[in-house]
Amino acid sequence: xxxxxxxxxxxxxxxxxxxxxxxxxxxxxxxxxxxxxxxxxxxxxxxxxxxxxxxxxxxxxxxxxxxxxxxxxxxxxxxxxxxxxxxxxxxxxxxxxxxxxxxxxxxxxxxxxxxxxxxxxxxxxxxxxxxxxxxxxxxxxxxxxxxxxxxxxxxxxxxxxxxxxxxxxxxxxxxxxxxxxxxxxxxxxxxxxxxxxxxxxxxxxxxxxxxxxxxxxxxxxxxxxxxxxxxxxxxxxxxxxxxxxxxxxxxxxxxxxxxxxxxxxxxxxxxxxxxxxxxxxxxxxxxxxxxx
Length: 292
Prior knowledge:
Shape: globular
Number of helices: 13
Distance between the termini: 24 Å
CATH topology of the largest domain: Rossmann fold
């Protein structure tokens, strides 16, 4: 019997809140210093673009900002990318410094894969972002497939770089926008695609309402990555300032949080390597990785 592990990415494998908030702030600081634009107006424009695209982490949204277009409107996307090399470099430098796997993630994924566990990723991040992070962090080969949400991302402005970032054929499965967390149909579709019954699948994620509640509703064993909820709340406020959430999204999130007290994960972990014991105890002994 094959066991399927479906893992969330952001704040389950790495601290997305910290790395993205700090990287975004570094880019905004550079834009303000280099171009003399007003910070609050800049953030308002970022939020408007995120709302339009339905995503708060939209690659190269800076190229679409009205204040940037008003100043450099004659430039195409590639030329504009080069003109804004300083702010974009600030983002990349901070990302290189702060985007790190949580302790034991790489070793645990390797151990699970070697033990015959089928591993797939699930995220609502843009395909290019999700695949890039798995590749950059050196764990993309641990995944059979990556499930992402459909997005309006127009692609990297540099065609050559876009080609380098393109995932292998068949590796990424794009889910329709209606299949958003915490819709349990998401996990039922993933199980169906992978040929695994829901009762033979596990889902791990950091959100009680979006991840754990979804897994429980789908009849999939749920593991709460409690460690993923530990970050500086001021960084979360940075993200909320430019969030893509509409008023309807805010109301829905409030309702989800109201129900959080009724959601009970099957397991709660404070380190990713606890998966070894959980899956080993419940789904048959592992021949490797007991030394982790």
